[in-house]
Amino acid sequence: PRLSVCRRLLFGLASPPLQLTQNAIGLYLNLFLLETARLRPILISAVMFSGRIVDAVSDPLIGFGVSRTRTRLGKCRPWLLAAAPLSALAFLLLWLPPRDSWGDSGRLAYFLPAYVAFSLAISCYYIPYTTLTIRISSCPADRDSATAYRMAFEMLGILLGPLFFTFIVEPKRTSVVCSQLEWANNSTRGFAGNNSTREGVDEEQAAYLTSAAAVSALVLLCGIAGFFGISELPDNVNSNNKGHQLEATQTSSRNDELKVKNSIRTYLVQCKRVVTYRPFLRATVIFITLSLSWHV
Fold first, then answer.
1. Which of 182, 179, 210, 220 has its CA nearest to residue 16?
2. Residues near 220 by beta carbon (within 8 Å), at least 6 away in sequence
3. Domain residue limits at 283
4. Would you say the pTM of this structure is higher than 0.85?
5. CB 3.0–4.6 Å: which of 123, 161, 241, 275 could bond 23 by disulfide?
6. How many domains does the chain have?
């Protein structure tokens, strides 16, 4: 059966969690850690970079886990059900105000695992979700349409994530002057700038937490919509469709071993083409340089 408009809408509605959280983190987490959590800049870089490393390592492992999942609910939907509340909770924990008595080591010991946990949780949500694209329908036109809905909702998530922080946090920011922060003495931390009082900082912390709670609620709602609104095709349907496609492109005389060898050979050839394509290499170097400069 063709994919209904309602199913496409629900599939798209499940897409924003990554954009909601990552854009809010990209714009405001560094400010929160520096101005509100009073974490040293070098430690902030360690926190952010550790999340990138874990994300790069975990993505292939999560993809492998999704491919090995066998449940009556499907391969991907159980991941959405488990990862959505974990992602919402981990995102909220990132914005909890630290205690003055924690010190630099205590703050690092809290925020680094919290950010790593969030990176893992959101990857456990988004990778199975994108995998669902090929499992919601056997019709290529339906898949393309569902992808269009997904991209539209992702653009909405890009705008909504920072929007909460902009309207809730910005009026409460204490405009801290970094040069006047007393990093070494947590009990006599300096507050500089407009509204830089203890009460003002408490209000700023509450504003960050309120914004994070709103985003976390949206993440949870998107996960619920994805789990209950998306239905996966059975494995035998996907296998039959793949078999028909293979029969149209390959001769029936090839055995399984030859197919595997040819697939590996083709994969290696394509990899060689990618890594030797100069525009791709230039774009990769630029992307890595910008990412490193952002965190350093």
1. 220
2. 84, 85, 88
3. 254-296
4. no
5. 161
6. 2
